[in-house]
Design goal:
This protein is of the alpha/beta class. It contains 13 helices and 12 strands.
Length: 301
Amino acid sequence: MDLRALRYFAAVAETGHMTRAAERLGIQQPPLSQQIKTLERTLDLQLFKRHARGVTLTEAGRLFQAEARRLLDDADAMRTRMKRVAEGQAGVLRVGFTSSAAAHRFVPDALRAFRQAYPGVELQLREANAAGLTEALVAGRLHAALLRRPVAQPEDLRFDTLLHEPMVAALPVDRAESLPASSRKRLPLKRLCESPLILVRRPGAPGMYAELLSLCHSQGLAPRIAAEVDRMMTNLNLVAAGVGASVVPASMAGVHAHAVAYLPLAGCDSLDAPLTLAWREGEDSLPARHFHALLHERAAA
């Protein structure tokens, strides 16, 4: 028994006439009659009573009609769902992000725009550090990730820079208040290094904080490292607690505003905080490909 046989049966049951059902189905009447007889033999049931003016359902036929209608409705619904999946209008999209990436208004705005454009796609979100997000992408647990500067670049991943923004110094408020007015206006790197630094990275890993250390060394500075942490929010929590100072993307300015002062840096134009989209090369998820396209379009705008 297949869906075609069920559709033939449903058409005959609804019209009560072989010829009219055949016309509705776009086939000849004799093959339709033969299909109904084959269905009855398969079920070992008489589904219709034949008479001169057409056919009527037997008791068994009425019960079978309800079951056939349910199966046909389910098949139609499945076909509709699969069509939406084929168009990228349904499915699941798993997106990861770092806390510093999420702090940039571009990220929540883009996620909101995607929800509005593709309401049938289930959006699953996960926060982690850049290394964890990269590993999750490689393992197939994520379709895309938004991070700052990659700490590793596996061959099967792509890293697209969407936006850039400057880095700013983050100091405990009391430390910032003790600085000369000129330093509060634009903080020299030497002044920053008078406090122990908090870095957001795996020990020895490259990235934005490796660039900070390289810039310090190029100016003959030897900063003391107070801590190396996994997340930007942990970094700012420690700055707020007075453990040390750090640099963060400008979009994070304002976090713990009662305890952290954010100051522009002098002579540190090379310190850049990119917003990066990471994704798998050859991604076959249509929702993911729609997401990538939406991010690039909005970044370009």
